[in-house]
Amino acid sequence: MRKFVLLCSILFFVSPNLISGAESEKVDSSLPWSVRMAQTVMIRTPDPALLDFSNEPEWGYTNGLVLDFIMDVWEKTGDEKYFDYIVSYYDKMINDDGSIVRDYEMDDYNIDKITPGKNLFEVYQQTGNEKYKKTLDILIKQLESHPRTAEGGLWHKKRYTHQMWLDGLYMGSPFMAEYAKKMKQPSWFDFTAKQLFLAEKNTRDHHTGLLYHGFDESRNQRWADNISGQSPNFWGRAVGWYAMALVDALDFFPEDHYFRDDIIGILRRLAEAISSVQDPETGVWYQILDKPDVDGNYLESSASVMFVYALAKGVRNGYLDKKYLDVAKQGYQGVLELFIEVDDNGLITLTRTCETAGLGGSGPYRDGTVDYYLSENIRPNDPKAIGPFIGASLEIEMLE
Asked: DSSP H helical segments within 46-183, as ranges?
């Protein structure tokens, strides 16, 4: 699929030799938004190991997230500088034996640490360097022994016992589905589908169709409902992670796979729910999705770009009715108007992103209340919005 897209879509964008290089420290504002944002990232952060405002290299899901979408820009443009930027990260972070240099311990069973591995399938295919294959084997080994709920759902982390979070479905599911296809291990298709099914089963609100951020099968967490085990609110980015997990995992499922239609069914139910809470005036989405009138609730960029990406990709691939393209386009226009700023050099700033949010923990307890989600820091140029903005831009550009 990636090779086919590369060959047929170079014509879609301007010729690569017209794309301004990062060395110029300027971005050509006549280029598509996807390319402009990718170039902005490379200018501001020449070392991709430091993508998440870090002073030290990180094996982090945010690094993997942004690089995954820059990989798509490389495929669309054919410009090798994007691929070289990606490889520079993995060359720094992976030893010759495939071990990860820092920020990774398998025994932590942190599903966030799977995400940077997504790009290694393509990096390995393009370079043939066996160390990348060895890293893939390490990550799949983690998933083989990763702690699970009684139903078989992967815990978000070992220290978050008995809990599934929507965030984790994005961190693990597309990787497992791609592993199933690329490594010819079809049992991982079934396991991926099971994770997606369990997440919907245990977090879906049957009145709104929206998904709660997390589920605790033990019901021991203070944030967990005593009966359902669900957390109490619909956090926008959590639902965004899950929506992206669905469309990205579907990239790899065979068309005749017996769970494929069921996953598409989940996506259709979720698309309806997402559309129902879109802000009609701006086209984007709130931090707490179903509470626009609550004092302090705000229109948030990462959830908005994630929803645009998932809806537009769902339409393009034929999973969703074309009516959702109007929802995606309205959302994308709202993103450009509300969250995007461009400086005199053409560099893009993406504003109003929730920096982080979680549930429970050993520090100040994250209780999943509205007040908690609205208390988290808001910052510009957060990679959790930057990456999906590139993806949303690519999808809208292809559809148009």
From this structure: 61-77, 80-93, 120-127, 130-145, 166-182
pTM reported for the whole predicted model: 0.94
Residue 167 falls in the annotated catalytic set: yes
Dist. CA 25–CA 44, nearest whole Å: 9
User: Per residue in 381-391, pLDDT tens?
Assistant: 999 999 999 99
Phi, psi (degrees; rounded to nearest 5) at 211: -115, 135
Cα–Cα distance for residue pair 96/133, rounded to 1 Å? 11
C-alpha 324/C-alpha 310 separation (Å) is 10
Q: At 233, phi and psi to the nearest 5? A: -140, 165
User: What sign has the CA pseudo-torsion 68, 49, 388, 135?
Assistant: positive
Instruction: Pull the structure tokens for residue 288.
Output: 């707490």
Find out whether 143 and 135 touch, Cβ atoms under 8 Å: no
CA atoms within 13 A on the CB side of 217: 18
Cβ burial, residue 81 (10 Å; 0-12/13-18/19+): middle
pLDDT in tens, 326-377: 999 999 999 999 999 999 999 999 999 999 999 999 889 999 999 999 999 9
Catalytic residue, from 68, 103, 112, 167: name it: 167
